[in-house]
């Protein structure tokens, strides 16, 4: 842990939506001894996460699709800002290969279901919960995993389950899942980052 004393590990959060997970992560690493959230990357000018970033004094980079997928400006920005971990928290675009390769083993996502079930293209937000309800699953949960070139595919770090009852709908299930996410995502990130550095 010697090197950690002088310089904090710099983390970027990628998010497209409300940003409740991003908020929890920022709170966890506020005044943290070894880790700091230095940047939020967002593709939606109206996303709730922008306000959360502002409240927490975290700079935001708004990206557009053409640049994100066709050049290396995002990667260059991350390098320039000495970001060493990327945390996806409800980011809805696929990550370009240049980024997954540059951050192999250092990019983490949270998926609102028990992968490998209910993952892949189109499986996000309510689509996931609706599919789980439709299939009368008895349980769902969260999966925290590393990110590779394939949607929702990288190796699994942690899964936590919740029950799905007959009376649940997509909204009530989404609430249960969010609770699990807020309980587990930030502390799991902290654990793996510190372990990787030790
Ligand atoms: C979460 O449910 C997460 O699992 C998924 O996107 C959602 C983001 O929610 N990847 P929020 O924006 O953090 O509130």
Features:
Rossmann fold, binds 5-O-phosphono-beta-D-ribofuranosylamine, 198 residues, 7 strands, 7 helices, alpha/beta
Set down the secondary structure blueprint:
Elements: E1 9-15, H1 20-29, E2 35-42, H2 48-55, E3 60-62, H3 65-70, H4 73-80, E4 85-88, H5 97-102, E5 107-111, H6 125-134, E6 139-146, E7 156-163, H7 170-197
Parallel strand pairs: 1-2, 1-4, 2-3, 4-5
Antiparallel strand pairs: 5-6, 6-7
The structure holds 5-O-phosphono-beta-D-ribofuranosylamine.
How many helices in DSSP terms? 7
Largest sheet: 7 strands, mixed
CATH superfamily: Formyl transferase, N-terminal domain
- Structural class, from helix and strand content? alpha/beta
Strand order of the largest sheet: 3-2-1-4-5-6-7
Instruction: Classify the helix fraction into a percent range.
Output: 25-40%
Q: Roughly how many Å apart are the termini?
A: 5 Å
Look at the structure and give the mean pLDDT.
95
């Amino acid at each position: 842990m010697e090197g950690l004393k002088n310089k904090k590990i710099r983390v970027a959060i990628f998010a497209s939506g409300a940003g409740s997970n991003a908020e929890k992560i920022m709170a966890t690493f506020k005044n943290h001894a070894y880790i700091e959230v230095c940047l939020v990357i967002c593709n939606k000018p109206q996303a709730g996460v922008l306000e959360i970033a502002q409240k927490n004094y975290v700079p935001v980079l708004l990206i557009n699709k053409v640049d994100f997928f066709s050049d290396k400006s995002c990667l260059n920005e991350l390098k320039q800002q000495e970001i060493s971990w990327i945390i996806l928290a409800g980011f809805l675009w696929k990550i370009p290969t240049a980024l997954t390769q540059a951050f192999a083993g250092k990019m983490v996502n949270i998926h609102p279901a028990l992968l490998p079930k209910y993952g892949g293209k189109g499986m996000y937000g309510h689509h996931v919960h609706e599919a789980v309800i439709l299939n009368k699953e008895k349980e769902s949960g969260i999966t925290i995993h590393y990110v590779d070139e394939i949607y929702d595919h990288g190796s699994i770090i942690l899964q936590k389950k919740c029950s799905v009852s007959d009376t649940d709908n997509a909204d009530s299930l989404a609430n249960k899942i969010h609770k699990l996410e807020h309980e587990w995502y930030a502390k799991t990130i902290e654990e793996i980052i510190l372990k990787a550095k030790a």
